[in-house]
Amino acid sequence: GAGVSQSPSNKVTEKGKDVELRCDPISGHTALYWYRQSLGQGLEFLIYFQGNSAPDKSGLPSDRFSAERTGGSVSTLTIQRTQQEDSAVYLCASSSGRDSLRGQFFGPGTRLTVL
Amino acid sequence: AQSVTQLGSHVSVSEGALVLLRCNYSSSVPPYLFWYVQYPNQGLQLLLKYTSAATLVKGINGFEAEFKKSETSFHLTKPSAHMSDAAEYFCAVSTQGGSEKLVFGKGTKLTVNP
Fold first, then answer.
1. A-interface mutation test, from B102, B106, B109, most A Cβ less than 10 A away
2. Residue A92 forms beta bridges with which residues?
3. Which of A67, A94, B3, B37 could bridge across to A25 with cysteines, CB 3.0–4.6 Å?
4. Beta strand segments in chain B, E
């Protein structure tokens, strides 16, 4: 596709349930990132995938959060046993590689509401 | 570790007036710096980026930013504000060591008054 796409655009869930958020990066982009945007914390880095390298998980807030990237393309962010503080907009971005010169291209985000 | 400080969570200007959004960074290595804009209910869009090629960087929609190492600043400016510039603006710095993860400032919401 022309840009980064994310689904669903909105997700409402009950506390304690698991959720999966999907990201389709720009075709050919080898790097993929997840960020979280919340009122209290601003924009926070969660996890970064680059090609076949081990992902950088340093931003994941707890072991309830995990992500995978299949076939070097689509990524899924999973949040287990959701808590109310997980409510936020989850943004996915992709870029063409290690070179920071190109910048990152962001998707529209998934708004997660945990009741 | 890198960090970014954006001075002023809200900035209000009149249409046609100068826009100045402030960003200061902290980095132990030469930084890559970015400005992103977020329109209501939309994702982030790259406005411009500094990559050490030139200290004055021109971006889209008439915005530009100047990298000042001595002041550790990367302020965003536009000579004449337009109503369509109303949005939230984020300054970001990229980390080093082979990872491009961005560290963002808290954002500045720009209001343009007619």
1. B102
2. A34
3. A94
4. 3-7, 10-14, 19-26, 32-38, 44-50, 56-58, 64-68, 73-78, 87-94, 102-104, 108-113
Give the mean model confidence (pLDDT) for residues B36-40: 92
Mean pLDDT calculated for residue range A10-15: 97
Contact B42 A108 (CB under 8 A): yes
Q: Within the 5-64 window of chain A, which residues sit less than 8 Å (CB to CB) from chain B? A: 31, 33, 35, 42-45, 48, 50, 56, 59
Q: Give per-residue pLDDT as tens, B11-31.
A: 999 999 999 999 999 987 778
Q: How many residues does chain B have?
A: 114
C-alpha to C-alpha distances, B55 to B70, B90, B105, nearest whole angstrom: 12, 19, 20
